[in-house]
Write a structure and sequence with these properties.
Pfam families: CarbopepD_reg_2 (PF13715), Plug (PF07715). The strands form ten sheets. This protein has a 27-stranded antiparallel sheet that branches. Strands 8-13-14-11-12 form a five-stranded mixed sheet. The N terminus is likely disordered. The radius of gyration is 28 Å and the shape is globular. With 848 residues, the protein is mostly beta strands.
Length: 848
């Protein structure tokens, strides 16, 4: 902190020589509200600034007359002349910008996937960079979206970056997440690990959530929706910022962002870096994380632009993996903060369950205006992930709440007791060890989209999508806990494996995925009508190499590629009835390949001959209203999902073990209605709200389900189970959600914000051992949470500064956010995660 203040004071000592100052306020034509983050640039120079949270700006200029250009993502650009006397200030008043579909289309070309209001026929919510900055605090990135219709975001166990996002009842495996048009969902299982993207909130230009089919132009759309994150490139103005944030439980984040603006040679660069540390709200979830972001872009004349982006977020954090009975939290002196997955070793905190990972991603984008009617956008990208999660194996009980290895009932583990046993075991090796389950990977891809205007009203788009992915999965010895080695027989090529720290154990296999896809889309737009039809196809190929279960001399150690052909057909139309009203509709059908583990059975190279494409049919109707100071949206949807494949985990308290059911071929039906609005009754107050009513149910029974333990060994291979899921509610996500919020400008430069979110019809995820005739999972009690925020802008010497304060769960409401069903499907037997109680952050940012 001392270094931060010293640098800030150093910056304030700088002297700026100027002729005068231009001030003004940039506002939205529809809502008459401020546009924070709008760019102000003196034409013909690199001198510029951005508006603050209230849309205000002050720009010192070194000449008495000229022009400024005012721009904002998705809005028209305005050029405004100015004159200013030497040493004086000229106020340009309110500068009104109107939404401009052509301006947003520039971003659509580069990001492949953004929707345009009153043109693209999808349900969409857009979150501005300023909203992210003011609300993020110490929340997880997905929690910024919690007031969006259909969204349910939770912290899961509460570890740093362990949050989960669900959309319309679909989990992250079935929500496409894209950063600058590049997909980031895991190629084998579709999951998104938000800890990998911890620093993106500092450089996000815009974030958009498309529910349902979405406008994504990659070969196969997602099921629940698409989250599109666009980072800053050449739009970043010259300058930067320093920031520091502190919060509850030792939370501390500090960092900086610097941008060159567009230089005379057409080059623009942005660099951002941050460090985040803390003890964690949940016991035993200490974390240390870093993030970095680099973008270098160059314009080559008016027709070409190259943009290189690299970012990553190396981190390590303790986890709370085990869910507990409500009674357990009640008995613990730590209450809802109780975590049974950590302990002490030699007086130091040691995580039994933890996570460490680094996944840098690099991309090179080329944008080419071939002619006035035709352009080509191409992205080459690569990502390299290294890391995994921890656990234990052996005779010691390092899981149950009454384990003799704890320092007392519901206390942390005393790992020194395990060390003593291992030392006593001498040359026989360790009886219990800590391990890492690694998931390293290499991922290369290419995306290219060609767009051409056939006529003034018809545009044709086509593109290709190629991906190569290799995941290396193995378990390694992390800590022998005082022993000399770990003896195990999982490797058929080395059945008496004397493993030491860093050696592989339990399993070792590769998953290789090839993806080739293409799409074609025809768009029509004339006057008030816009429509599109789209066709896409993809070939997904899976190969598995198993180094432990097959001899090196066995040709079956490596499988052939198994191919799945997927395709999609979708269409939609939007009609603007007048300047206030519009309606839209979309419909689509697509088939996508099953996930990797559904193709290879029993965690071996056995091919599942019954594996088949998942089939999805979706339809949606929507209505929008826009007027000065008020806007609203209403939409209804229906999504039928056939032959779904997924893995359901559950914890068996009798054995203190986690098991996994590999479920193939189940159907589901997700239907609902969503409403959202924004109202600005007067210039200093904005009111927002939403209501989302879902009806999500499993729509078929499923048989021949196999269950596996944590070592990937099948239980009862001759006795698979059946799940009678017909008409059982889909769990894990609140089916009814409501939100109401307001933002009030209490004083010039000072805003107060309050948001209320309410969740109901939240069912526990089903227990695979308990799904019999008439089964109904436990319904979690409804709950509501209030968040409070305050933002204050002020001058810090010659610089703009901002103070941001956030209090999440202001009323310290106790609630259950996640639940797995128990044997009796009630509160007494369910295993749960509680949500966080009251948390807070206070941060400062200085712009230069």
């Amino acid at each position: 902190m001392r270094k931060f203040l010293a640098l800030a004071l150093f910056l304030t000592s700088a002297t700026i020589f100027a002729q005068g100052t231009i001030t003004g306020k940039v506002v939205d034509s529809e809502m008459e509200g401020p546009l924070p983050g709008a760019n102000i640039m003196v034409v013909g120079t690199n001198n510029g600034t951005v508006t603050d949270f209230d849309g205000n700006f002050a720009l010192e200029v070194d000449k008495t007359s000229g022009e400024i250009e005012v721009s904002f993502v998705g809005y028209e650009r305005k050029v405004i002349p100015f004159t200013v006397a030497n040493g004086a200030t000229t106020d340009l008043g309110s500068i009104v910008l109107s939404p401009d579909s052509e301006a947003l289309e520039e971003i659509v070309i580069t990001s492949f996937s953004l929707a345009i209001d009153r043109k693209t026929p999808v349900a969409v919510s857009t979150i501005k960079a300023a909203d992210i900055e003011t609300k993020i605090g110490n929340q997880e990135f997905p929690e910024i979206l919690k007031s969006t219709p259909g969204v349910y975001a939770t912290k899961q166990g509460g570890g740093f970056g362990d949050a989960e996002l669900r959309l319309r009842g679909f989990n992250s495996e079935n929500i496409a997440v894209m950063i600058n048009g590049v997909p980031v969902n895991d190629m084998e299982n579709g999951r998104v690990y938000w800890s990998n993207w911890a620093g993106l909130s500092d450089v996000t230009r815009s974030m958009q959530v498309q529910r349902g089919l979405g406008a994504s132009k990659v070969a196969v759309p997602s099921i629940g929706g698409t989250v599109n994150i666009v980072t800053k490139t050449t739009d970043a103005e010259e300058g930067g910022n320093l920031f520091a944030t502190t919060g509850n439980d030792g939370y501390m984040k500090f960092g900086a962002t610097v941008s060159t603006g567009v230089l005379d040679n057409g080059v623009a660069a942005t660099v951002s870096a941050s460090k985040t540390t803390g003890n964690g709200y949940i016991d035993g979830t200490e974390f240390e994380a870093y993030s970095y972001f680099v973008n270098i872009a160059k314009d080559f004349g008016d027709d070409h632009q190259l943009s290189f982006t690299a970012f990553g977020a190396p981190q390590e954090h303790g986890q709370r993996e085990t869910q507990h009975l409500i009674e357990t939290y009640r008995l613990s002196e730590r209450g809802t903060k109780f975590n049974g997955d950590w302990g002490y070793l030699n007086g130091e905190v040691t995580h039994i369950q933890d996570n460490f990972y680094h996944k840098p991603q690099m991309s090179l984008n080329h944008y080419w205006d071939i002619s006035e009617r035709t352009n080509l956008s191409t992205a080459l990208y690569a990502s390299f992930g290294t890391g995994g999660g921890g656990g234990y194996q052996g005779n010691a009980d390092l899981r149950s709440i009454d384990s003799p290895y704890r320092n007392g009932f519901l206390q942390p583990f005393n790992l020194d007791l395990v060390v003593a046993e291992n030392v006593e075991n001498g040359d026989l090796g360790s009886e219990t060890i800590l391990y890492n389950s690694r998931n390293d990977h290499k991922w290369y891809g290419a995306l290219s989209t060609l767009s051409t205007e056939i006529t003034e009203t018809i545009e044709l788009l086509g593109g290709v999508d190629f991906r190569y992915y290799k995941g290396e999965h193995f378990r390694e010895v992390k800590d022998l806990l005082g022993g000399t080695y770990w003896l195990e027989d999982s490797d058929i090529n080395n059945p008496n494996n004397v493993a030491r720290v860093g050696d592989k154990m339990s399993y070792y296999n590769d998953g290789i995925v090839l993806w080739e896809g293409g799409f074609a889309q025809l768009e029509y737009s004339e006057n008030d009508l816009s429509a599109f039809v789209s066709l896409a196809a993809s070939n997904t190929s899976y190969k598995r190499v198993d180094y432990f279960n097959y001899l090196d001399s066995d040709p079956e150690q490596e499988t052939d590629f198994i191919h799945f052909f997927g395709y999609s057909a979708k269409g939609g139309a939007n009609y603007n009835i007048d300047n206030n009203h519009n309606v839209f509709a979309n419909i689509g059908y697509f088939e996508k390949a099953p996930f990797f583990n559904a193709v290879f059975q029993n965690f071996q190279n056995d091919i599942n001959e019954d594996a088949e494409n998942q089939k999805i049919f979706s339809a949606e109707l929507g209505y929008g209203f826009r007027s000065t100071g008020f806007r609203a949206n209403v939409n209804v949807y229906s999504t039928r999902w056939s032959d779904r494949t997924f893995t359901q985990s559950y914890f068996d308290r009798a054995s203190d073990q986690t098991y996994f059911a590999n479920i193939l071929g189940v159907d589901a039906l997700h239907q609902g209605i969503e409403v959202d609005f924004s109202y600005r009754p007067f210039s200093t107050l904005t009111i927002t709200g939403m209501a989302s009513i879902g009806d999500w149910n499993w729509d078929s029974d499923v048989t021949d389900v196999f269950v596996y333990d944590e070592n990937q060994d099948v239980l009862n291979p001759d006795s698979p189970i059946s799940l009678l899921l017909q008409d059982v509610p889909v769990g894990g996500s609140a089916q009814h959600t409501f939100a109401l919020g307001f933002n009030y400008e209490a004083l010039p430069g000072t805003n107060v914000r309050m948001d209320y979110n309410y969740y109901d019809n939240l069912f526990a995820d089903f227990d695979p051992n308990n799904v019999d005739e008439g089964y109904m999972p436990w319904e979690v009690p409804a709950y509501g949470v209030v968040d409070f925020g305050l933002t204050h802008n002020f001058a810090f010497g010659d610089f703009e500064a901002t103070l941001i304060g956030n209090v999440n769960n202001l009323l310290d409401t106790e609630y259950i956010a996640v639940a797995d069903d128990g044997p009796q499907s009630n509160a007494r037997t369910a295993q749960v995660y509680y949500g966080f109680g009251r948390t807070y952050t206070v941060g400062a940012k200085i712009k230069f």
